[in-house]
Amino acid sequence: MSASMVRVEGLDVRYGSAHVLRDVSFELAAGRTVGVVGESGSGKSTLAKVLVGTAPIASGSVEVDGVDVASADRAALRTYRRRIQMIPQDPFSSLSPRRTIGQTLAEAVDPVRARVAEHEERIGGWLERVGLQADMLHRYPHEFSGGQRQRIAIARGLIIDPHFVIADEITSALDVSVQAQILELLAEIKASLGLTMMFISHNLAVVQRVSDEVIVLFQGEVVESGPVERIYADPQHWYTRRLLEADPGSAGFSLAG
Ligand SMILES: Nc1ncnc2c1ncn2[C@@H]1O[C@H](COP(=O)(O)OP(=O)(O)O)[C@@H](O)[C@H]1O
Ligand SMILES: [Mg+2]
């Protein structure tokens, strides 16, 4: 089976006179991860917002998980948004400082009742899965490091078994060694769960670690796309080459050591 999770065709997004995405087309099969790379302002987050239904589609078609995002009504989008999860860049501002980690995860599972005791096993299991300990569910966000908070944000995104996950610059605020650990974790989880994911970063080396395919965005346009190995070994567009050169870590990027 090679069902498409995402099918985008001829997508245009405009904010007033700003043409933020131009004629963007791509397809993502279930179980695959697409990396989206491009410098700041290239339209990466806007593309993510289109997929979760929070950016205006000027033209083109966008289908995610069988839903036509452009024409879906509010009710349809509400159910849809529980199947699509966005992992935020800055978990500190997205994790409530007054809630324990357990409460935050319980709320993800059941927004209405949010009872930690009812979901303790599942919450503890996910904390362990992201490299923390089950009994940490009683702690508050400030008791964790930045990397640990990003792990918690990943657990929160994945605990409801989403069909599709979007990670937008989730390692950008972390230092390089912690970044490598988070990428390792994501690669591991992705392999064991068969996640379908869009992984966004301005850093091509970071994208390489977890992606099967890569889309290169330049000023709102896809200038190059293809399998990650090909993009690396044989970049076709000058902008892709520039991204590779701009990142001295990319050639020898390794998680070892
Ligand atoms: N809500 C908005 N209103 C107006 N312009 C926006 C809005 N969101 C994004 N933009 C503009 O769209 C362009 C792409 O932004 P964004 O998608 O955030 O890029 P990236 O995530 O690659 O840094 C930028 O020029 C940005 O200023
Ligand atoms: Mg962005």
Our measurement of the CA-to-CA distance between the termini, rounded to an integer number of angstroms, reads 38 Å
CATH superfamily of the domain at 4-89 and 163-246: P-loop containing nucleotide triphosphate hydrolases
User: Reading side by side through the largest sheet, how are the strands ordered?
Assistant: 6-7-8-3-9-10
CATH architecture grouping of the domain at 4-89 and 163-246 = 3-Layer(aba) Sandwich
Nearest-angstrom radius of gyration? Answer: 18 Å
User: What would the average pLDDT be, to the nearest integer?
Assistant: 91
What is the general shape?
Answer: globular
Q: Using the coordinates above, name the CATH class of the domain at 4-89 and 163-246.
A: Alpha Beta
* Fraction of residues in H or I helices: 25-40%
Order of helices and strands: EEEHEEHEHHHHEHEHEEHH
CATH topology of the domain at 4-89 and 163-246: Rossmann fold
Portion in strands = 15-25%
The major pleated sheet works out as: 6 strands, mixed
What labels would you give this structure?
binds adenosine-5'-diphosphate; 10 helices; alpha/beta; binds magnesium ion; Rossmann fold; 4-stranded antiparallel beta sheet; 6-stranded mixed beta sheet; 257 residues; 10 strands; single chain; 25% strand
Indicate the topology:
Layout (H helix, E strand, L loop, with lengths): L3 E12 L2 E12 L3 E5 L6 H9 L6 E6 L2 E2 L5 H10 E4 L3 H4 L6 H9 L10 H10 L16 H13 L5 E5 L7 H18 L3 E5 L2 H7 L2 E6 L2 E7 H6 L4 H9 L11
Parallel strand pairs: 3-8, 3-9, 6-7, 7-8
Antiparallel strand pairs: 1-2, 1-4, 4-5, 9-10
Helix pairs in contact: 4-6, 5-6, 6-7
The structure holds adenosine-5'-diphosphate (ADP) and magnesium ion.
